[in-house]
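ok so dumb question maybe but i'm new to this and my supervisor (M.) told me to 'just get the structure for ADP-ribose pyrophosphatase YjhB, NUDIX family' and walked off. so i did the thing. is this what she meant?? sequence i used:
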Amino acid sequence: MGSLHPITLQPSVRALVLDGDRLIVFRRTPPGRPVYWSVPGGHVEPADATFEHALHREMLEELGAVVRSVTPLTTLRCLRPEGVKPQHVYGCRLVSLDAALRCGPEFDDPARGHYETVRLPLEPAAVEGLDLVPPELAAYLVEHIARLPELIGP
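this is what came out, is it supposed to look like this??
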């Protein structure tokens, strides 16, 4: 990767989903690898008309969730060996969640491991000790988690 003009990789969307006064995250247990944590989201697909459309699609695929008050929060530039990965981070509020509706490829392939949905308190200490990926999002959350209710629309 050239230092002056790094390659921009396919963008992703990430959702900081509030369920009342809790943040929804995944505890990922991949076979043969250490446990790590993430928030719902994924690649923006060619069929996605907008980043927000991609976010709603990902919420249904990964959580079986419908969300509202989708609010752009930040765009992270995540440095990877192959280039820069833009991560468009949105805050939103949970309307409904039905795990039976999850339909993403991560749930079709048992070799991808287990995705446990966990709700964390909106406190920096709740995320500081987690191996949350991407690390740029972990840093954003430590700084902003307590303010999410005021940053996200009603």
